[in-house]
Structures are given as structure tokens and as C-alpha cells.
Amino acid sequence: MKMLAAVMYEQGKPRPYAESKPLVVQEVELDPPGEGEVLVEVRAAGLCHSDLSGIEGIRARPTPIIIGHEGAGIVREVGPGVRGLKPGDHVVSVFVTSCGECKYCNRGRVNLCPSSFSARSAGTLTSGAKRFKVNGQPINHGSGLSLYAQYTVVMRNALVKIEDDIPLDQAAIFGCAVMTGAGAVFNTAQLRPGSEVAIVGLGGVGMNALMAAVAAGAERIIAIDTNQAKLALAKEWGATDTFQAGPDCAAAVNDATDGGVDTVIETAGAVKALELAYAVTARGGSVITAGLPATDSRFTIAPSALVTDEKSVRGSYMGSCVPARDLPMLLNMYRRGKLPVQKLISGHIGFNEINEGFDRLSEGGVLRQMLMPHG
Fold it and tell me: Under CATH, what is the fold of the domain 190-315?
């Protein structure tokens, strides 16, 4: 079939993206699904910082490539051997697939399954296939999903079926921002009622962590960001304290909390944010980092202080989620109003505005813009 998609031919183009156009919207050929694969009509895809890092060249991607890793859509065709899905089913995408057989899967840590890593680097599905072409030349798959397209072919285990009555633009956010932010709170931090938490970085992931902290019954929720408008939203959505990140921020937070916060969740994906998170963590407390900085970034800790302060630093990838288990739970919380993720949507855009959308994301003034590939 033929359809429209946004293809990235080159990483590292300069801003403004409205002028340099790192994403080229054009007609693309899409082959039908093979064994274990599913054809999905993409109805909504989020513009996420992980995609922005690919555009910036911070994280290497094989080009040409169709990126986009957070989305929702409707199953239109299933390949041989696919079970549990049929045409017409509504689905949310998952950007890490699991094999179900390795030691990580057997321990219930499917988010750490390495089976899709080589395929991601090669720009293929885990089946080894490439289903996109332009003028007969293969186009690489991004994260096995390639959601900046009207249709895509993905592996069956990259999809979770959802109820048909959930608006797909809102369901799309669960594929990355909700799993990563809320999962960091519920799974990695295992935050309990009455606890205290600080969240450093109030993008889509950070705001989901904030909402999850409210839902978890945290007694004190401290929101930290450079953007005053986001701090105001955080206060409106349940933060008890807000601080603007800057040279004096750590001292101010430590003064206000009598020496720091027990649990600090960093979602900005920048070393300075991680340093700030560590600085505002109380003795005996934990830093949980869910952001993804450049692969060559380094974070320095004094080992002696690590011992004497008994701080811990822990990563949280995909919110330590088991998608088949956690997505239904998170969606039920959304239904009950406990995770009002619809508040995060800053706007809906079409392909004609996708490069401008990444300009806005880079400037830091938006949370989640939703690409609607069919208008």
C-alpha cells in the first residue's frame, strides 16, 4: 500500500526545524505484515523528547528512518501466527518488545529484555524485516514502531489491546510518557501513602510522575523545573511545593525540607538535572532517573559520600513496567480520573506542522503535542 509518512534522512540539522525540515513528509510504500506482524492504522502519535534527541543527533539512528515511538491506532491486518488481535481492535504501542524466554523475561523484567536491541540498531523489526520503501529503496524502522506514518507494521508483542471507548489521542500517551513517569513512581520507587517525593523535570514524563505521586497518596510533592508556566501547572495538578531550577535551587529545597527529600525522580534527561536531583536527595534517600541523556554523558559521584550518606541512584527504564500487566491498570486509573493525562495534550497537529512541533518541543513550552496522521 501507499501512504504518507515523515522520513528522517539526516540527523543533526539545525534549528529552526521549520526551515531545515529534518522530517520530510512524503509518499511511502508499505508491505503487508509477515509472520508475527501486524498492520496498524496510526491514529495518534506523541512528539516526545526521545524522538527529538534522534533529530538532534544526540542518539544515533540508522537513516533514512521513520521515527515515532509513542502512539495508538487500530489493527487493520494481522500476519500469520498472530494471536489475540484481530482487525478493528484498538491498540497502544510499546517501544520495547520482549522475547518471553530470556532471564529478564523469566524474572518479570520484560522492559530489560535485550532481544530487540540489535533490531533497533539495524533499523528492522525483530523479525529482521523492513516493510517501508521509497522508490523501491528500504526505509529503516524506528524503535520497531515508526509511528510518524499513516500506517505501520509492527511485531505482535509491541502492541497492547485496549477498550474501544478510550480516545486514541489520549491512549497514545500511555505508550511512553505514562508508562515511564507513572511507572517510575509505582514500580521503581514503589511510593507509599504519606511519603515525600521531588520530581526534577516537568515534561510529559515528569508530569505523569507528578500525577502518579498524587494518586499514590504522597504527602509532600516537590516539583522542580526551569519553566515557570510548568511549575504553575504542577501546583494546580497537586504539587505542594515548586522550585525553579537554577544555581540556588538545591540550597532552597534542602532548607525547605530539613536536609533533602527521601525520593527524587529525575525525568529531564540531562546531567545537570541529575546532579540537582542528587543534591536535593536526603541522606538515606533514593534518586531514580528516568530521563535519557546523550549516550556519552557522564555523572560523577564521590564514592565516600555515597557510603556515608547512604544514598542510592537507580535507573528506571520504561517505568520498570510489564506492559501487558501495567497498561490496563494505568488505563483504569485514567478512567477513574486518578491519572488525568488528557491535561497533558498541548495541541493536535498534522504532518504539515510536524517540524514546527519539534521546534516548540525543543523550546520547552509544551508537554505533549499529538500528531494526527489522518488529519
Answer: Rossmann fold (3.40.50)
pLDDT number for residue 170: 98
Query: pTM to 2 decimals?
Result: 0.95
**Is a pLDDT exceeding 90 seen at residue 188?**
yes
For 170, phi then psi, to 5°, come to -85, -40
The C-alpha cell 521513520 sits at: 66
pLDDT at 116: 85
d(CA 117, CA 54): 16
Mean pLDDT over 66-84 rounds to 98
Residues of the chain within CATH 3.90.180.10 domain(s) are 2-177+321-371
DSSP 3-state of 21: coil
CATH architecture, domain defined by 2-177+321-371 = Alpha-Beta Complex (3.90)
Distance CA 103, CA 85 (A): 27
Residue 294's pLDDT is: 85
Number of neighbours of residue 270 by Cβ within 10 angstroms: 17
Share of the chain above pLDDT 90, in %: 94
Sequence-ordered list of residues with C-beta below 8 angstroms from that of 155, at least 6 positions apart, any chain:
36, 37, 38, 97, 125, 126, 127, 144
Calculate the dihedral angle through the C-alpha atoms of 79, 83, 86, 90, rounding to the nearest 10 degrees: -110
Report d(CA 212, CA 187) in Å as an integer: 11
Rounded Cα gap, residues 137 and 154, in angstroms: 19
CATH 3.40.50.720 residue ranges for the chain: 190-315
The DSSP code sequence of 95-131 is SS---SSSHHHHTT-GGG-GGGHHHHHHTS-TTS---
Report which of 149, 197, 187, 199 is spatially closest to residue 45, judged by C-alpha positions: 149
CA distances from 357 to 8, 239, 350 (A): 15, 28, 10
Residue 360 belongs to what H/E stretch? helix 354-363
Binned at pLDDT 50, 70 and 90, residue 99 comes out as confident
Mean pLDDT of all residues in 259-283: 97
Which of 67-76, 98-107, 256-265, 352-361 is predicted with the least confidence, judged by mean pLDDT?
A: 98-107
d(C-alpha 289, C-alpha 310), whole Å = 17
Find, among 4, 338, 366, 92, the residue nearest to 204 by Cα: 366
